[in-house]
Amino acid sequence: MVNLNRRQFISALGASALTLPPIRLAKADDGFIPLRASATKAQLLAPGEAQTNVWAYGKSVPGPVLRVRQGERLKVRFFNDLPQASTVHWHGIRIDNAMDGVAGLTQAAVPPGQSFEYDFVAPDAGTYWYHPHSRTWEQLARGLYGMLIVEERTAPDFDLDLPLIIDDWRLDEAGAIHEASLGAMMDKSHAGRLGNWVTVNGASGPVLKVPTNGLVRLRMANASNARVLRLKTANLKGKVIALDGQPVLGSAVDSETIPLAPSQRVDIAFRAAAEPDQSSELLVQAGDKNISVATLQTTGAAIEAREFPQLPANSIAPLGNLQDAMSVDLHMEGGAMGTMREATFNGQVLSIRELVRAGQAWAFNGIAGRTEDPLFRARRGQTVIVKMINDTAWPHAMHFHGHHVRTIEKNGTLVDNAPWRDTELLERGETVKVAFPAENVGKWMIHCHMLEHQAAGMATWFEVSV
Ligand code: C2O
Ligand code: CU
C-alpha cells in the first residue's frame, strides 16, 4: 500500500502567480454550449512536477465556468468522449426533472461517443456546480466537475467574482490518481475516499490576484469525494453571504471555521487590503494544523471602496403550516462500527457479510441503494418533513435533488430560520429534521454526497406529482 500520508496537504512551495483566464465558450448556432468530457492531463502537482492523467470537461480541471442569468435558459450539449457512460447533473438547481442528469432515474447514461442536450431554466441565482451522476465516485475522483453560476437579475456590484472549487485528490507517489483504491470497500464502509492532495481550481496552492481595496465575492464549492473541508481564513475579514446558492444574512468569517461538506457551497464577500502586495490565505484544517490552500494577493492601485451589496433572496415557496406536512423518517445505519446486522438489497435480505460481498455497507430504513419504489410520494405544493436519524459512527452529507430544504429541528431542539440548503451535514449520531415545499414535479434523489457511501447503499428517491 502506498504511503498516502507522504503528500498529506503539502502546499506547493513557490507556486507561481496564477490568474484565471476567462474561458470563452463558443456557442453553436443553435445556442448550445458544447461541453466535452474526455481524458486529459492536469497540473495538479506544483508547476514543474509531473502532470496527472485525469478526466475533465473541456480538457481542464475544473471544467469551464458556466454562467447564466437567473430565469434564463442554459443550453449545454454534452459529448461523452470518456471510456464509460456518463451524465451531467446540475447540482443544487431546482431544475426540470428530465434535465437532472441522474443515470437510471431521470435519463439513461450517455454511452461513450454519444451526446445529450441539456436545456433548462435556472430559477435561483447563486453558486452551483455540475458533475457526472453515473459512477460518480469514480468520475468525480478523476476530475469531472465545474462551476455553474446563476447571476442575479441585477448583478450586485463586486469588483471581482472569483469561483474557487476545492478538491481533495488521492494521488500516488508519482502524482497519478490512486486507481487501485477507487471504490475500495475500506473507503465505502468508513469515511469515504479521503485524499492526500488539495487543489483549488485544479492547482496546488495558487496565488490569486485580487484588486487592491476591491470588494471580492468568493464562490467556493467542495468537489471532494468525501472530505468535509473545515475552512479558515487568515488576514481576511468578510462575511458569509450565501450557502448552497441561497443568500443568507452575512455572519462574520474572521475567526470562525466554516464547515463545507462534499458538494456544499459558500459565498464569502470581503474587502481586499488597501495596499498592493498584501496576502490573505484560505486555509483547510488538517488534524491540529491549518494548511494554506490558496493565497489571495492584492494587485494594482487601490480602487475606490464601495458598499457591501445585499443579495436579493430567491423565491422558494414558504413552508406553510407544518401541522399539515407529510412526515417521513429516514433512518441511516451501517458502516464500520455500526450496529446494522442486515439490510435489503435488490429485494433480498442480506446479512452484513453478504452485503459487503455485494459492495454495500449502509442502509436507509433497512434498504441499501435505490429501489423501484420511492421512499415517499408527495403532491406538488405539499410540505414535507424528513427526519434524518444518523445512527452511524460517521458524518454524512445528505443531498436533496430538485429542492432546497431547511432544518427545523436538530437533536431535539427547534431551529428557527435556518438557511435553505441542498446538502445538510449530519455529524455522527445527530438527528436532523428538515422541511421543504415539494414544488418540483418528478423523481428526485436523496443521497449521501460522500460518494462511496452513496455507492454503498446511502441512496434513495422521492416522487412529486401534480
Ligand atoms: Cu451533487 Cu446527486 O449530486
Ligand atoms: Cu455518508
Keywords:
single chain, 466 residues, mainly beta, seven-stranded mixed sheet, 4% helix, binds CU-O-CU linkage, binds copper (II) ion
How would you describe this protein?
The protein has helices at 136-139, 185-189, 352-357, 451-455; strands at residues 33-42, 52-57, 66-69, 73-80, 89-91, 115-121, 126-131, 146-151, 160-169, 197-200, 207-211, 215-222, 229-234, 238-243, 246-252, 258-260, 265-271, 279-286, 289-299, 326-334, 342-345, 348-351, 362-364, 376-379, 383-391, 396-400, 405-410, 413-414, 420-421, 423-426, 431-437, 442-448, 459-465. It has 466 residues and is mainly beta. The strands form seven sheets. Strands 20, 23, 25, 27, 28, 29 and 31 form a seven-stranded mixed β-sheet that branches. A six-stranded mixed β-sheet has the order 10-9-12-17-14-15, with no helix packed on it. Strand 27 and strand 28 (413-414) form a beta hairpin. The longest helix has 6 residues, at 352-357. The model is unreliable at 1-22 (pLDDT under 50). CU-O-CU linkage is lined by residues 89, 91, 131, 133, 263, 399, 401, 445, 447, 449. CU-O-CU linkage (C2O) binds next to strand 5 and strand 32.
